[in-house]
Design goal:
Blueprint (H helix, E strand, L loop, with lengths): L6 E2 L4 H4 L2 H27 L3 H9 L5 H8 L6 E3 L22 E8 L2 E8 L12 H15 L3 E7 L18 H12 L4 E10 L1 H4 L6 E5 L3 E3 L16 H5 L1 H6 L6 E3 L2 H14 L5 H4 L15 H4 L10 H5 L7 E4 L8 E8 L2 E8 L4 E2 L7 E2 L3 E2 L1 H17 L3 E7 L1 E2 L3 H5 L2 H14 L4 E10 H6 L9 E4 L4 E3 L3 H8 L15 H21 L2 H6 L5 E2 L5 H14 L12 H7 L4 H4 L17 E4 L4 E4 L15 E2 L4 E7 L2 E6 L4 E6 L5 E3 L4 E7 L1
Parallel strand pairs: 4-5, 5-6, 6-7, 6-8, 7-9, 12-16, 15-17, 16-18, 18-19, 18-20, 19-21
Antiparallel strand pairs: 1-10, 2-3, 3-4, 10-11, 11-12, 13-14, 22-29, 23-25, 23-28, 24-27, 25-26, 27-29
Helix pairs in contact: 5-6, 14-16, 18-19
Amino acid sequence: MAFVPLAPLGRPLAEALDPATVAARVERNAVREAALAEKQAVVRDGWGADAAARVHEKGKLTTWERLVRLADPGADILPVCSYVNWGRHFKGSKKLAPGAGVVTAFTRVEGKWVVVIANDNTVASGSWWPLSPEKIERAQTMALQLKVPVVYLVDCSGLFLPEQALSFPGRTGAGHIFRMNSVLAASGVPQIAGVFGDCIAGGGYMPIISDRVYMTESAYMVIAGAALIKGAKSQKLTSLDIGGPEVHVHQSACADERVPDDETAITLIRKEVARLPSSAVDFYRHGAEPAAPKHAPADLGALLPDDHRHTYDVRDVLARLVDDSLFCEVMPERGQEMVCGVGRVNGLWCGFIANNVLPTPHPDRAGELRGGGILYRDGIAKISAFSRSCNEDGLPIVWLQDIAGFDIGVEAEALGLLGYGSSLIYTNSTNTVPMMTVLLRKASGAGYYAMAGLPYLPVLQLSTPLTRQAVMEGRTLAIAAFNTKLDDNFEIASADPDERARIAHAMDETAARIEADMEPIGAAARMDTDEVIPLGDIRRYIEAIVEMAWQSPRRVRNPRIWSLHDLVLLSKGGVAAAKETAKEVVAVEAPAEGLVPLRVATAGTFWRRPSPRDPYYAEPGAVLTTSKTIGLIEVMKTFAPVAAGMEGVLERWTVADGAAVEAGSVVAWVKPA
């Protein structure tokens, strides 16, 4: 049997960063995550306590109360598309529509993962607002790709009519929900529906194609309610008389069973899920046991720098996502701006493809470094081959994006990056294995597309509070927009002070608007990303998607005959081989007895402080620890932290702030502890 050479990955937080940096990042991350939690609470609260009280007065449970009872005790409920329509106002309503009036989530029921689609009955009686249909269809698509059951908790009074033009017509309008019902049925995906209240027009159609339909005594399904039927008033007809359980269970057979209340319906839905085939997850573990990462996922909030220009080692991120922090990296010596390989998640194999945002050596020019987070030829070829192998072997793929885009310029075009990029796009467009994309920080330009961005139909795309999703950064876009008014150095080409001020103001306004558009909650509100989650929750969502990917039996090779083994065999021995090209360290004479040199590993511009407005990382006399950051190395507008690497006292600097340095240069002298 072929062996997968898993190796330890990543460093403890204390080795990766100095305590002051960790503390500052943890504090800033806590503020961001508190703001995110507040927004999540607003969405979950719907229209508030008064609306919930009205639901209870009718003898019903709120949507979230139903969802909690549906899920297994202690099971995660992982919402998706929570922030659709966030902050958006609609004509005809003085209130907003939290979550577009629909709850969509992953959870376990009777030990099996399911997709839940539930009308929020505290928001306009579960009406469909603009983007409500698209949100429902997105959840249906996730279930279709993963082949996991769908549970509908239906309590929908139809379209929010004042804005019907935004949700009724069009390719993804409300009618597409029913097409997706049909496609799911044709694909053998189980669908189970509970009907709990008003189900008018589209709300009545949605559950009908389900394999099982339960109706409570207070529920009805009608094409048109009593208010629209001629003579209903004179006949004293109600919508319950027209389409209640008496009609649809005993006469039309549009539903399977009537039940007295919400609690009973939930109990019977759980029993239906229990009757479905058991999960294949244990079979596909091939005897492996689930294990937590050795390095805590909660560290991610401290590991990732706030400033998208500052670098980090993505292997430290991977170490907090895979079981036991063990990983088999494939072809590490080629295309070092990309990291790809396989690891286990809860005992199940999964492929990972990630941007390496550290400066990396040029493959053809010794001593020259290239910026991280950019797609170059070798990296594109590597991840294309790896993605194809994962698809051939049946392994789900997780993409970790922190990308500035493709390489550009004369050399890039001559090397055929368009062709290599097209190969990657073709690969990801035709893969059939479940793929998941996480936008860690930057998701820029065509690189966002090529690395399985949302247009390439990953099962799920996640953003974090640090995510910036756009073609280009605000300042860069402002330069492009005002290019005709700038000189070759991108400075305003005018001697007129008034004109210079007007152009500068317009450029600042443009940059600010673009920066606002890149904000992750805004992207989620437009459905440009599926969910915004805390960095520490990434592992939880990956666990869910990977388990769902293996839950239903599908075309998959056993590990003995993976094509990935060929890629591992053809690798040259890992990162250590690439480091053999490092420059020889030149000995230097100490300026005083007992001092040792502090060197930098890479060439670039050395900065002794985070920005011109900030204090220096360390002044002479400062006490240094091994992980303390003492400066930054800038390579192609990316900034990598330089750690002291020793304990002692900083005696003197040998370089000025902003000085150019070579690999191995001495930047300071230290008296060891």
